[in-house]
Amino acid sequence: SMPSEMLLKIFSYLDAVSLLAVGCVNKRFHELANDNGIWLKHYSSSLHPKWTIWKMKSKQTETVSLGCAALHDKEPGYWKKEYIFKKTSAFKTRVMRLVKFLDPYTGLPCKNKEAMKVSGLSWIIVLKDKNGKEHVVEKPNLSFKDTSVTVLWHGTDWPCLDILSTLKLFGVTPLLPDQSIPPNKNGPRRFSLIAEYHLANLTENSVVVGADDLVQLFSLSPGLLVGMWKGENEIAFVMANLHYNQLLERSILGSANVQYSPPPNKPLLDDIDSEYGLHDYRLHLDLHGRNCMYLCGSFKCLFCRKGDIENGYVRLIVVNLKDNRKHLPVTGTLGICWETDVFKGNVKDCFVMDLTLLDETGMPFWCFSAPVHMELSTKSSGLYDYMGHIYTADYADSEGKVCVEFVWLEETKEYIIVSLVLYVSTKKVNSWFGTNY
């Protein structure tokens, strides 16, 4: 029953975030909170806060003179949209400026943590059941590595798998970020869709990564690991492995319904040697189990010849089976660590692989972070240097394949990587370089 003029006077004292929040109370508050007069003041005050007093006065005079036209010629909510657009554009520019600094070791942005802190970025998953009801899961545990971040969600109130249809992974940032104020999950936020996964027939259609006494792990592309209670049809936890390449762009620049699409690569002239194929590639490889690192290695001067291009793939040999000088020891027993509110464990014979392949110009060419499982091979090693069981670990996606062979040394209780081969899709190469292999 309060007069609109009085409510508008009260609203004029609110900051922008509070004004957006009060506009969600009811229809009348929404209409009043869109008042162009209030939002024009917010917009004008945020124009150039570092100007001198003389410039500020002239700007204020200009704003006042244009005030009547700016208020009467615009539809309700116009200046609110302009204010939000201006603030979010400045925020994105500030964040993207941080990720321009590249690590010469990995070829990836070296200030990801700083950029995430500035943006107030977090990640949530939204489980949607078959009736359309959504269940939001927040409060993840983060684990940072050289080239990726692992995000783990767990709780006691997960919906039953039988009623779930999809899982969506979102990057979430405050709509109007303020570094002086911690992000408020009840405040206005911007959602950026990173990936969507279909959960129908999860246990039948997914790759089984491994199991221990309590949970069984299922892998969904790209980079999602779902832990199911063993013998039950209930989710224990969800783990997402996010590679740093384009991580912030996908987490910030997308919309709630459409994923961020990176611009196409612009090939350099004469960047393909017609006689020798690809050359001078670099690889950075991490093998970890969320909390522990098993291998961190960089490999330079990778190349292939024309004869290495067959069956739709370009082959890059990183570790040669016959060259024991380049065989790599792996620290510790491979496995993926998990935890919930009560239980924790380690699933053996699997790991998370972070792969970063850089082209000859140092640009990220093929990147992923995904769980990989190991299998005991029936063949013998054929190597006189090692006597032990052979294990293989393979990964494949639309851009290529990775094949790894390990030898388990019982005496020293360690794995040795004796073979590591990358198979890059010729379609990927052709689209990247604008050529035809």
How does this structure look, described?
The protein has 437 residues and is an alpha+beta fold. It folds into three domains: 1-47 and 65-100, Monooxygenase (Up-down Bundle), CATH 1.20.1280; 111-251, no CATH class; 281-433, no CATH class. 23% of the residues lie in helices and 37% in strands. The chain is built from ten helices and 22 strands. It has helices at 4-11, 16-22, 27-33, 36-45, 53-72, 78-98, 112-119, 202-205, 247-252, 426-433, and strands spanning 122-129, 134-137, 141-144, 148-154, 164-174, 189-198, 207-211, 215-220, 224-229, 235-243, 281-288, 293-302, 309-310, 313-319, 328-330, 335-339, 344-348, 350-358, 364-376, 389-397, 400-409, 414-425. The strands form four sheets. Strands 11, 12, 13, 14, 15, 18, 19, 20, 21 and 22 form a ten-stranded antiparallel beta sheet that branches. Helix 4 (36-45) runs antiparallel to helix 5, helix 4 (36-45) runs parallel beside helix 6 (78-98) and helix 6 packs antiparallel against helix 7 (112-119). The longest helix is centred in the first third of the chain and has 21 residues, at 78-98. The radius of gyration is 27 Å and the shape is globular. Residues 50-65 have low confidence and may be disordered.
Topology diagram in text:
Layout: H1 4-11, H2 16-22, H3 27-33, H4 36-45, H5 53-72, H6 78-98, H7 112-119, E1 122-129, E2 134-137, E3 141-144, E4 148-154, E5 164-174, E6 189-198, H8 202-205, E7 207-211, E8 215-220, E9 224-229, E10 235-243, H9 247-252, E11 281-288, E12 293-302, E13 309-310, E14 313-319, E15 328-330, E16 335-339, E17 344-348, E18 350-358, E19 364-376, E20 389-397, E21 400-409, E22 414-425, H10 426-433
Antiparallel strand pairs: 1-2, 1-5, 3-4, 4-10, 5-6, 7-8, 8-9, 9-10, 11-12, 11-18, 13-14, 14-22, 15-22, 16-17, 18-19, 19-20, 20-21, 21-22
Protein name: FBX15 protein
Pfam family, one: F-box-like
Organism: Nesospiza acunhae
